[in-house]
Specification:
The chain is an alpha/beta fold. It is built from ten helices and seven strands. Helices cover 43% and strands 14% of the residues. A seven-stranded mixed β-sheet has the order 1-3-2-4-5-6-7, with helices on both faces.
């Protein structure tokens, strides 16, 4: 049984496709604050805290990466959200790909932001395991201080920096460590991408050094029906650093997905 996830569920049920927002590591659902303000005016928006993050429980700890996808599926079952657009950033984008691997029939569109599909390298496994050990031993603050100006650009606003740093330091080390170990052993999604049968939007910050533009270009090229948006003036979190640009691209993409749905089709004559 999946643990009960904390979540936001905002906006009306309409003919528009619901939007599900999946945060990255080591953040929580407030990562999507600009989107949670803008999009519920026109559609239902669900944003969970992943297991081990935010207000969601850390136990039982996630041990298999697919556990994140199954938790989301269980939450959407509980909320009676049958089909949806899935949007994820960084680790959240990899969870979105895992959701598509496990229950593609429910997914109407994918938004993959600042993420990449390949499985971890042996060196990457060792690095993530070592970081998990460090977080358990030292807590989150030292790590948060070190990576803040890679998560967001050095020139990001003080408010954005404070928000991101606050999310990282508020994350439970036990949840972050468990997720790092599970993520290190995640599946390879490269072979999945050419089989994706729904529209996709690939977004990346122009100054992202964690998942650079080259990763987004490869992701875009592998998907059969994808759009690419490179967001100038942003690093790893363009949805927070340049929300007006990110939201405009997302809004255009959602309108395209809405237009494909049977309920949006004109009546037959």
């Amino acid at each position: 049984m999946a643990p009960f996830l904390a979540y936001e569920d905002k906006g009306p049920d309409t003919h528009r496709v619901p939007l599900v927002l999946v945060h990255g590591h080591p953040f929580d659902r407030t990562m999507w604050a600009p989107q949670l303000q803008r999009f519920p005016g026109t559609r239902r928006v669900v944003a969970p805290d992943l297991r081990g993050y935010g207000a969601s429980p850390t136990a039982p700890a996630v041990t298999d990466f697919s556990g994140f996808a199954r938790d989301i599926e269980a939450l959407l079952d509980e909320l009676k959200v049958e089909s949806f657009v899935l949007a994820g950033l960084s680790m959240g984008g990899q969870i979105v790909m895992d959701c598509y691997r496990l229950f593609p029939e429910r997914v109407r569109g994918l938004v993959l932001a600042d993420t990449f599909p390949a499985a971890e390298t042996p060196e990457g496994v060792r690095t993530r395991d070592a970081m998990a050990d460090r977080l358990l031993a030292e807590g989150m603050r030292g790590y948060a201080d070190e990576v803040l100006e890679r998560m967001v650009a050095p020139y990001a606003s003080a408010e954005v920096k404070a928000h991101v740093h606050g999310m990282m330091t508020a994350t439970a080390p036990e949840g972050a460590a468990a997720a790092l170990r599970a993520r290190a052993r995640r599946p390879d999604y490269v072979s999945l991408l050419p089989r994706v049968g729904v529209p996709a939007l690939v977004v990346v910050g122009a100054d992202d050094t964690f998942t650079p533009v080259s990763d987004a270009l490869a992701l875009h090229a592998a998907l059969p029906d994808a759009e690419l948006h490179i967001v100038d003036g942003a690093a790893h979190m363009p949805n927070l650093e340049r929300p007006e640009v990110f939201d405009a691209a997302l809004e255009e993409f959602l309108a395209r997905v809405d237009a494909r749905q049977p309920s949006s089709a004109p009546p037959r004559l």
